[in-house]
């Protein structure tokens, strides 16, 4: 009998037809105590995301943007594998591992406004599974097709259960026109098992344009019919928190305005990675960290500025 953590409770890309099954994990783990009040917790449980406008100040956003520009220039010159270029025009699409290459983003990862909420929703100590900046330049930013991050992190990184979340901090205004993140509310309550099989070294393709591990159209049609589509917009400094299994994507950006987001993915230390369920080699550390050291030692103080509980 396989030990529980090795049992594959969420098989996908196992050569069968796509299928939909119920989520087996709670959405909010633990006692739910922390900075978010009951209204926010209920919204997150039901929809799988929370949008907090203006959580970071313009001055903080300015400092993050300057740091990102510095990193981008340095990584380009270093030709680091953590930099992912757009397939068609060679513009920078994503920059990974920024919580480890930058002290500024390491500090952001520990900021109570993010880590405090993550510990509340994930029920205890957390570590950073993945950090990245998605730069969607004006005119040239390409789309990210619909997907569940958890499906990839489970199959390709060995993340056992749904006990992780992403915090997307916008460094530019997210408008309806510059390719904002789109979500299917409530889709986190179903697990979409995808068709196909994971190729060796899949991340070298999927980070530029993901096809394997994306849901079929019939399933997406059904989930969108049930939950609709949401595209939260707001000023730079806003934060979109979304559950690891929520279906999301974004369109290309043909507006003149860039859309840059910094993503920090928090995973519970109780949900540390095991061997990838696809049976292939683990993906590189810059995409899926295997340093499970808690990002902060104690729960930050409760209460978020300006949040009604
Ligand atoms: O494979 C991954 O980990 C990345 N792929 C996507 C499309 N979203 C999550 C993450 O950045
Ligand atoms: Fe994603």
Please give a structural write-up.
The protein is 25% helix and 21% strand. The mean pLDDT is 92. A hairpin with a 6-residue loop joins β3 (83-85) and β4 (92-96). It has helices at 38-47, 58-78, 98-101, 103-110, 112-122, 149-157, 203-206, 217-227, and strands at 19-22, 49-52, 83-85, 92-96, 126-136, 144-148, 164-170, 181-183, 190-193, 239-243, 247-250, 259-268. It has one domain: q2cbj1_9rhob like domain (Jelly Rolls, Sandwich), CATH 2.60.120. The protein is built from 8 helices and 12 strands. The chain has 309 residues and is an alpha+beta fold. The termini are far apart. The strands form 3 sheets. The protein has a 7-stranded antiparallel beta sheet with strand order 2-10-7-12-5-4-3. A 3-stranded antiparallel beta sheet has the order 6-11-8. Strands 1-9 form a two-stranded antiparallel ribbon. Ligand 6CS binds at residues 130, 132, 144, 147, 149, 152, 206-207, 210, 287. Residues 130, 132, 144, 147, 149, 152, 206-207, 210, 287 line the site of ligand 6CS.
Classify the secondary structure makeup into a structural class: alpha+beta
Radius of gyration, whole Å:
18 Å
- Count of spatially separate domains: 1
Low-confidence segments: none
Contiguous helical run count: 8
**Extended strand count:** 12
What average pLDDT do the residues reach? 92
CATH topology: Jelly Rolls
Strand order of the largest sheet: 2-10-7-12-5-4-3
* CATH-level-4 superfamily name: q2cbj1_9rhob like domain
What is the 3D shape? globular
Distance between the termini: 46 Å
**N-to-C series of helices and strands:** EHEHEEHHHEEHEEEHHEEE
Give the ligands present: ligand 6CS, fe (iii) ion
Into which percent range does the helicity of residues fall? 25-40%
**Proportion in β-strands:** 15-25%
CATH architecture label: Sandwich
């Amino acid at each position: 009998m396989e030990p529980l953590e090795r049992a594959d409770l969420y098989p996908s890309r196992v050569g069968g037809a796509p299928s939909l099954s119920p989520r087996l994990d709670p959405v909010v783990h633990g006692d739910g105590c922390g900075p978010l009040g009951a209204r926010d917790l209920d919204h997150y449980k039901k929809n799988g995301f929370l949008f907090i406008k203006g959580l970071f100040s313009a001055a903080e956003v300015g400092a993050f943007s300057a740091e990102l520009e510095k990193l981008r220039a340095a990584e380009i010159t270093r030709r680091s594998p953590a930099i992912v270029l757009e397939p068609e025009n060679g513009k920078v699409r994503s920059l990974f591992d920024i919580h480890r290459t930058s002290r500024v983003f390491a500090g952001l990862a520990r900021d109570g406004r993010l880590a405090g909420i993550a510990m509340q929703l994930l029920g205890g100590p957390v570590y950073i599974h993945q950090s990245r900046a998605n730069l969607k330049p004006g005119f040239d930013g390409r789309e990210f097709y619909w997907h569940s991050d958890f499906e990839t992190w489970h199959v390709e990184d060995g993340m056992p259960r749904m006990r992780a979340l992403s915090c997307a901090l916008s460094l530019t205004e997210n408008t309806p026109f510059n390719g904002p993140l789109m979500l299917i509310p409530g889709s986190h309550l179903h697990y979409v098992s995808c068709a196909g099989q994971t190729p060796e070294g899949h991340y070298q393709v999927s980070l530029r344009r993901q096809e394997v591990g994306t849901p079929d159209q019939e399933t997406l049609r059904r989930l969108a019919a049930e939950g609709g589509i949401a595209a939260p917009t707001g000023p730079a400094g806003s934060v979109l928190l979304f559950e690891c299994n929520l279906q999301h994507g974004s369109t290309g950006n043909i507006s003149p305005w860039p859309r840059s987001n910094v993503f920090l993915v928090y995973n519970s230390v109780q949900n540390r990675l095991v061997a990838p369920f696809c049976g292939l080699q683990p993906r590189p550390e810059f995409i899926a960290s295997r340093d499970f050291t808690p990002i902060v030692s104690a729960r930050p103080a409760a209460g978020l500025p300006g949040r009604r509980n």
